UniProtKB/TrEMBL annotation, chain A:
GO terms for biological process: tetrahydrofolate metabolic process. Its cofactor is FAD; FMN. PROSITE patterns: RHODANESE_3 (PS50206). It comes from Aquicoccus porphyridii. This is Sarcosine oxidase subunit beta.
From TrEMBL, chain B:
It comes from Aquicoccus porphyridii. It comes from the Bacteria. One of its GO terms (molecular function) is sarcosine oxidase activity. This is Sarcosine oxidase subunit delta. Pfam families: SoxD. GO terms for biological process: tetrahydrofolate metabolic process.
Length: 417, 90
């Protein structure tokens, strides 16, 4: 089934009775060439690119819940490529380029909207840091414009520019940044993978990883044993538990990150705005809800809900930045579980077990990485070599200290990112 | 969440700063080798369930506490002074 304007028109005139499920609901086979554990955004894109780029079609995605039910449906949908450090820069740059062709590639409307992202700054030192970051982005081939105070006022006139503690000095404008419809990204990749022969197996929890003589041979699941010579572990949010099945102990702490959405409003916020000093960022969804969030709750959690102090802090920061939003009513809030790595950057790497590959540690930035993460993970699984754009995401960088990617410059330690 | 500080009584979570897994109390020998130190500094059990962790009562008595807490329910099951807990370990 392909989507087209004609198809929508025809279905509209005939009672919308011709739509079919977007993917099959197959029984697991006894053996696959490759298994991807985790049917979130990253797992689905990995399976999609395994099939599309590498011709591996005898592939299963094992999802313990349902497609789109995890973090891929629990984020704030921001897509950007404004990283500073080598290793991250080329990866997120590649990801943004994939986003820009994603709808055509998947024949699926993921509502990717390059509405522009503005990171505000509030001091001379911060301006220098953002100027440097902007130069790094331009060197990478992406776009960045350093706005002064009047430049920000021109496009965001509704901010409080004279906040006594954090007056707005300007902002780093990334016009190609924006948002996308998170559920549609999962559905689009799921459909694309399914069309290429990948079995998406839902309600199938992995309970064990079979290893013989240092080689992975398959997995045990709640729907029986499944054999495969290659297994990709793509379960950010639960990485420590699944890796423990292979006897691994990861450099990951799980934290909860909250987000909030208001009732639907008429268009008021046309961009994505981040207010780093207050730990607050906001955009407006196409339905009209203001979608915003802040910092981690900062304690280990798997609860998918946070506590009130951080909710209060986020609301205070929002009010300090744009007092007008005080009139909007919050509809709901939720929490996602973040794989926090010591340096705040992810891992896409082989493990010490032959055939077992690891994709984890996305911290609070996993959504925008979905296309490139799958692209590079598929390359790693198919060829046994890291993709050039993800070559820095090595698991051993914490032990060796080589190639740490600490964007915030706070040190490669837990609880600092 | 509220933490029942042994010195100050039940206090709001805002008064406390989180450090992380209480394995920090079990510092390896300086000559234990890179693998042991890497494990200590970076790797974590990170359980979904009960865990022991270090909290600092920054806006209270300034004591370091070992809190036994469930990471799924956020229920706090026990709180003791880190100095006392470290005595247990040693």
């Amino acid at each position: 089934m392909r989507f087209s304007a004609l198809k929508i028109l025809t279905e509209g005139l005939t009672g919308n009775k011709g739509w079919k499920p977007h993917w099959r609901d197959p029984e697991p086979k006894a053996e696959y060439d490759a298994i991807v554990i985790g049917g979130g955004g990253h797992g689905l894109s990995t399976a999609y690119y395994l099939a599309k780029n590498h011709g591996l079609r005898n592939v299963a995605v094992l999802e313990k819940g349902y497609i789109g039910g995890g973090n891929v449906g629990r984020n704030t949908t921001i897509v950007r490529a404004n990283y500073f450090l080598p290793g991250n820069s080329e990866f997120y740059s590649h990801s943004l380029k994939l986003w820009e062709g994603l709808e055509e590639d998947l024949n699926y409307n993921v509502m990717h909207s390059q509405r522009g992202l503005i990171n505000l700054f509030h001091s001379d030192g911060q301006r220098d840091a953002f100027a440097r970051r902007g130069n790094a982005m331009i060197n990478q081939g992406d776009d960045a414009i350093l706005l002064d105070r009047d430049g920000v006022r021109e496009i965001l006139p509704y901010l409080d520019f004279d906040n006594a503690r954090f007056p707005i000095y300007g902002g780093l404008y990334h016009p190609r940044g924006g948002t996308a419809r998170h559920d549609a990204v999962a559905w689009g990749y799921a459909r694309g993978a399914d069309q290429r022969g990948v079995d998406l197996i839902q309600n199938c929890e992995v309970t064990g990883i079979d290893i013989e003589n240092g080689r992975v041979t398959g997995v045990q699941t709640t729907r029986g044993a499944i054999r495969a010579k290659k297994v990709g572990l793509v379960v950010a949010g639960r990485s420590s538990q699944v890796a423990a099945m292979a006897g691994m102990r990861l450099p990951i702490e799980s934290h909860v990150l909250q987000a909030f959405v208001t009732e639907g409003l008429k268009p008021v916020i046309d961009h994505v705005i981040s207010f780093g000093m207050g730990h607050f960022y906001i955009s407006q969804s196409d339905k009209g809800g203001l979608v915003f969030g802040g910092d981690l709750d900062f304690y280990a959690s798997y609860a998918q809900r946070g506590n009130l102090p951080m909710a209060e802090h986020v609301m205070e920061a929002g009010m300090a930045l744009m007092p007008a939003i005080g009139k909007a009513r919050v509809l709901r809030s939720w929490g996602g579980i973040m794989d926090m790595s010591p340096d705040g950057s992810p891992v896409i790497d082989a493990t010490h077990i032959d055939g077992l590959f690891l994709n984890c540690g996305w911290c609070y930035g996993g959504f925008k990485a979905v296309p490139a993460s799958g692209w590079c993970m598929a390359h790693l699984m198919a060829t046994n070599t890291p993709h050039e754009h993800a070559a820095g995401f090595r698991l051993d960088r914490f032990e060796t200290g080589r190639g740490l990617m600490d964007e915030e410059g706070t040190g490669a330690q837990h609880n600092l990112h | 969440m509220r933490i029942d500080c042994p010195c100050c009584g039940s206090r709001d979570i805002r008064e406390f700063t989180y450090k992380g897994d209480a394995l920090a109390l079990e510092r390896p020998d300086p000559d234990a080798g890179d693998a042991v130190w890497n494990d200590y500094v970076h790797n974590r059990d990170n359980p979904a369930g009960p865990t022991r962790e270090l909290w600092y009562h920054e806006m209270g008595c300034a004591a370091w506490l070992v809190v036994t807490r469930d990471t799924v329910s956020h229920e706090i099951k026990a709180v003791e002074l880190a100095s006392a807990a470290k005595g247990d370990v040693a």
